[in-house]
Design brief:
There is one protein chain. The strands form two sheets. A four-stranded mixed sheet has the order 2-1-3-4. A two-stranded antiparallel sheet has the order 5-6. It is an alpha+beta fold. The chain has one domain: 3-Layer(aba) Sandwich (Glutaredoxin). Helix content is about 25%, strand content about 15%. It has four helices and six strands, in the order E-H-E-H-H-E-E-E-E-H.
Amino acid sequence: MFNAGAAMTITIYHNPDCGTSRNTLAMIRQSGAEPKVIEYLKTPPSRLELLALISAMGIALRDLLRQAGTPYDAMGLGDSNLPDEQLVDAMIATPILINRPIVVTPLGTRLCRPSEAVLDLLPNPDIGDFTKEDGAVIPAAKLAT
């Protein structure tokens, strides 16, 4: 069980070029935490780390595969007959195929799309009103639901 009084390690697999990832990082920091930031395009997870993240999120491997702005189509990754091992190989070799941001805390692991999904993973999710990069304001009351 999580001890609220203990220091909490938060890790974000981050792409600084992604608005959702930047919003998620800002929300973590607005909660008072300073996460370990892994720029996964520079330091991709190993095969074992990637598989552990997918398992911890409880999602299908294809749910973590990013299509937009990637070589997904050119690599033929839409073929439903491709084995998971081949998809993992592609994600390791071409990390832009890994959807982001992924946040890991003692409270869980999640692909934080939309960015406010991170609040379920924070020890202090009461961050007040939050303004996303696109100017959309998410009132604190909505964040609490």
